[in-house]
Structure formats: structure tokens, C-alpha cells
Records
---
Amino acid sequence: MTSHGGPPIRVLFVCTGNSARSIMAEALLRIRGGDAFEVFSAGTDPKGVHPLTVRVLTEAGIDASDARSKSVTEYLGQPFDYVVTVCDQARQTCPVFPGVHDSLHWGYEDPAAAEGSDEERLVVFRRVFREIGERINRFVPLARRYHDAGSPAPAALG
């Protein structure tokens, strides 16, 4: 049981490399969702956690020491309430997850593909981190409300 009285809401964030966006989303939802959520991330072609992802998380006061890239195959067959793709490429190659309550797509620019100096690339990482954080802030109360009521999630979560 969680502090909200029910089982945790299981969420899997998926992107291609599991190096930036899905790692950020996992870290943010862990912090902002608390024990109401059980959160994971994975990639369709994991590349390792990008150093600028670690830097952005650390700047935000989030411990990134346990962050690691994982393959979606680690989670096949596990039940999730939400599987959220955070890039178009992952949406096209994301495996079917049985028992998924809802599949959502939150499209974000791939900061790992940003060009320029480290400082210019860091600006892109920070912006994507901020955008994901804003989406997580909207997602948490809505997901809790619909999960607690046993209702299907509205399109507003996607």
C-alpha cells in the first residue's frame, strides 16, 4: 500500500537510447510522484546515460548515481498502468506491453542529438528537462485521480 491508499501506479518511460529523455522522466516522476508511483525507464536501443543528462539531474538536486540505460526487453511481460514513449522513434518501435492501462506519447526533441559546444548542448538538455518536468507536474495529480477512481485515463494525460 502507498500513502494514497492503493497499489502504486506503475509507469514505464521509453525512448530509443534510454540516455536522456526517459531517464529524466523516470527521475522526475520518482521525486514528484513519491510512493504513489513505481517508475522505470528503458530504450529500444540503449546507448548508456548521457553525461549531460547526469549533469542536468545533478543541477536539479537529483541523485543520478544509480541511473543506467536498460533495454525494453527487461520489462516485457510486466504489468504497467502507463507506458509513455518520449520520442517518435520509440513510438514506432515500442513493443506491445500486455496489461497496459494506457499508452501515452509525449514527444520531445532528443537532446543527445543536439549539436554545438558543450554549453550550447547543455542549454538543450536543460530545456528538455524543464519541459518534461512541466508535463510530469500535470501528469501526477491526474494519474492519481483516475487510478484511484479505477477510471480509464483521459486524453489529457497523453
Note: The mean pLDDT is 88.
---
Amino acid sequence: MTETDQGASVGKRGFVGSKRFRALMLLVVGCIAVLGILVFRGEKSVPLPWARRRGWGAAHIVKTTLATKGLSKMLGANWRNLPFEISAEEEADANQCVKLARNIHSHVNRRSVFDSDQTRLALEGVLSRRQGYFYAEFLLGIWHRNNGDEQKSREYLERSFQHAPRIIVQPYQFADGRPAAGARLRCFALECNRVKNASLDPSLNLYYPDLVTDEAGCIYLPVYETVYRRDHMAVPAGHAANYPRLGWFQSRTKVGILPAAIVTAKQQPPAPPASQPR
């Protein structure tokens, strides 16, 4: 090969390498642009700012299953074990709080039993023996809000969110994407599943009464870290709500965001025709 041939060969390789480099750079730029779009959409669709202000990670929940597969199922183990467990004493406190929360549906002299002083004293009693218990703190936050003390309500709610292993967020929005801000829901519940020795125990249902969506159209539910199912999903007053179908799910971050429920205003029944004079 002559010197001229060698130069031509090197020039050709350089040209090919240059084309590959440009193609690679275009691919990288394209990936960055797509990632930017996804991040931007994520900012709009999930309450990331709420979590970031508190220094927490936030992501969409992850669908999962508790049913076993393969060899485990063949050996008769229908459910996969979970690490989540609580003491009998803590479960008793949780169940007492659930019972108090459900009193939102009972009334004496047109006032909810949940809003009574007896509820506050009982919840404070739970906190006196189980300091930093997020569920009792959350319910006290709701109690103080319902009784007109917004500052104390915010303090208890923030403590609850800080102490909770997980926070599940349920967004509500209209069909055009607008958040359903200020919507009131009578209740929501999360089933906190436990599985030990392949035996499923779904009995622990944390009940959240009298919820109001924030400016992002979201409610925030402090909860244990485990595998969940939704329960008692109320609809905003005066509206209908379409919840996306969802079975078992979990959150891999402190804040887990559920798929948005689509809210529509209920149509008012037509007024009865005016009676005609006889």
C-alpha cells in the first residue's frame, strides 16, 4: 500500500468515525429531550413539590401481588410472606383509633361523635403511651381542624407525615385535568396486609375520616410500609368519582401517588313541572 493509499484509508476511517460520533450525539440529545419531557409531565401530574418541600422522595405506586408462583405455589404456599408486622399492643391502639375514626358516621344532637371531646381525650391517651404514633396524630389533626383550630391541626398533621413510614396520595381531578381542589370526602381506608408463614391477614384497615383535598386536588394518607389495597373510597360531596381499577400495590418511596380519580359533577334532577291552576 502506498503512502497515498494509506492516507485515503485513514481519511475514510476518520469520516466513518465522525459520522458515528454525530449519530451517537444525536441519540444522546434525543434521550435527554425525552427525559426532560417526562420529568416535566411528572411535575404536572404528581404532587412532587409537596414531597420535595419536606425532603422526601415521591413516585407513583407500584402494582404487585401477594399470590405465590412456581415452586412455592406447588408446595401449597398461596401467599408470599411480608416483613411488615406490629405488636399486639400497637395493633390494639390502631384498632382503637379506627373505631374512633369511624364515629364520623355517628351523630348526637346533630354533631359527629368523632368531633366530641371524648375522641380527643382518647387519641391523646393513645399518644401518651405510644409517642409519635402517626395514625393517632393524623386523627388529632382532623379533630382540631373540625373544631376550628387550624394551627394545631397543621402541627399534628405534619408530625403524622414525619413519623409515618409511608404516605399514600390520592389525586382527584376533572376530565380536563384541572385538580378538584377543596373537595370533601367522608372517608377513605387502606388495607395494610400482613403475611406470615404464608398466611394472609388483611384485617388491619386504617380509616381516614372527613378529608379535604388541597390545591393540587390531593389527599395525603399516612400509613405503615407494606402491601395495600384501597377500601371505602368515598366520592367528593356533590360529585361522582371514577377510580381506576387497582388491586394490591406498594410504594417504594416515602410518598406514593395513586392514579388520579376522575371527578364529575352530579346532574341535578329536573325540577317537577309547576302545577296548573284549576
Note: Residues 58-265 form one domain.
---
Amino acid sequence: MKRIRSILSILILLISIAGPASASRFLTGLLTGCEQAGFLLPDSYTTDSAGKSVETAPENLTHPVSGEMTVHFLDVGQGAAVLFQINDQVMIFDGGGRESSSFVVAYLKRLAIDQVDVMIASHYDDDHLNGLVGILHTFPVRQVYDAGYATDTRVYHSFKTFIQDQAIPVSVPEAGQSISVGGATVTFIAPDSFGHLDENDDSLAIRVEFGRTRLVIMGDSTADAEQQMLEQDLAAMVYYAAHHGSNGSNSKALLTEVNPDFVVISCGAENDYGHPGEHALSRIQASGAELYRTGQQGTIVATSDGETICWDQATCNDFTPGS
């Protein structure tokens, strides 16, 4: 009874300051078990998973959207994979390594996904590409974007051969190029050119915009490549850390431009690389962002209606390196 009275009090307060739509969204979160449900505040503010006010983009800089976007930051161990369900379309950014390939395929099947509309291979390292090969062999894929350079690894040849044999359209995007996926705008923000001495700097990176919700999703770009991104509009609520949170990436300059409220780091628990790095974590903590880590928390899911973002779990905010 006390809980009911508390909820009613909160609803009355929300209706008085933010309107019935916000109260409805808050109540929906409670009923659906989303403990971190956000609700709409007046003007250009929403709330994050901790109930903190987060300034969003002004009305004239965003486009109204319908439906919702769900983002799955998959726990693929020492690798990277981000799955987007945007209304009726599906996009996958990287797919993790060989050990996690079957997990990624099973995860998509569990969601009753029967087609991938857009596949993005940030670059050709095994821990990003193997899972994409598994997806190619399991689901129809309508369009592939990749980094375009050539390398001599088994997984690279498997990836390229299957795409060619199945005549799947493949493109090498330019920085600044945008595509539409399910009502979201996906802009390629890196690299500015290809042929870097360090192949990690040929990694694709994207900004995803769905209404007022923005995410920056990185591959393995180093600080050198990040420097070339700074001329673009990088502001985002969510930042998927570059190169598993390594010290040589996630520069202060980039974090300042993105200015995220949340950072997600994908790396394996007790990995051999010391990821995430002490200095990278220090920079992330200094930015004021809250932290999620797949190595500690497993797969992390965020859902947005274009106005608010709701997470399936609380942030860990553990800035201990290499764990």
C-alpha cells in the first residue's frame, strides 16, 4: 500500500510539472520492469538511468521519429558487436570473434530476426569480423559497408568470398556520408582516408541519430585517427569506446567533443591486453560520463523512443583498469 501511495504521489507530481505523457512513460517503465525508465521533462531535458537531467539537442536540430530503437551492446568477450533494431530494420556493427560467433547468431535468432538490413564491418581484425561471417552464413544480408582495405587473413577471405559469391551489395563509405536505417540517420564519421600505417586507423566509426538520441560507435581507431574526426559533429548521449577502452584511443579531445552521458566498453573479463586501460578510464571518468562494461555486466540493452533512453540495468561505474 505504501508503494502504491508513493507511485501515485510521483504520478501526480509528474503530471503537474511534465504532463500526462511523461507520467504515462514512467508508469509503463514500472509495469514493464524497466527500473531505469526515463521520463520526459519540460523543454529540452530528459532523464537518464540514474534520474539525472540530461540536456538533449534543441528541437530545430532534430527530426521527429516514430517507433523505437533498441541497441544491444553484445557481450562477445574480447571483441566488439553492437546490434540495432530500429523499427522494422536491423543493423549490426561488428560481430565479435570466433569464440562468440555462435552466441551472436543465437542471439539474433532468439530475437526472431530473419534478415539483416545493414552490416558494418569496422575493420578486419578477428575479434570484430568472425561473428559477421557467422551472420552472413545464417541470415540474408541486404547491404554491407566495410573498410575497403585488403589484408591476408583467413577470416577476411571468408568474409569477402561469401559476399562476392552471394552478390551482396558492398560499399566503402566516405566520412560524412549518411544512410537511413529504420528512421534513424547513420553517419559515417571515420576514417577520413584509408591506407594508414596502423590498420586500426582505417576503422569505420558511426554516429547514430534517432530523434534526440545520439550514439557514437567506434571501431579500433587510435588517437591519431580520432584527431581527424574532431571537425565533425560528434555530440552524443552514448559513446561506445574505441578499441575496447585502450589507452591509445579514447583521447581527451574526442571525449570532449562527444561529451557523453554514458560510455560503454566492450572487452573480455581478465583479458590479456589490460583493457580497459588505466589512462583511458581516467579520461572517461574525468568527462563525467557514467560507465557500462560488458566484461562485468554481460550484454547491455538500451531502448529509445527518440525522446528518452531506457537501460536494462544500472551503470557499474567501475573504473578499475584491466578487469
Note: The first strand starts at residue 45 and ends at 47.
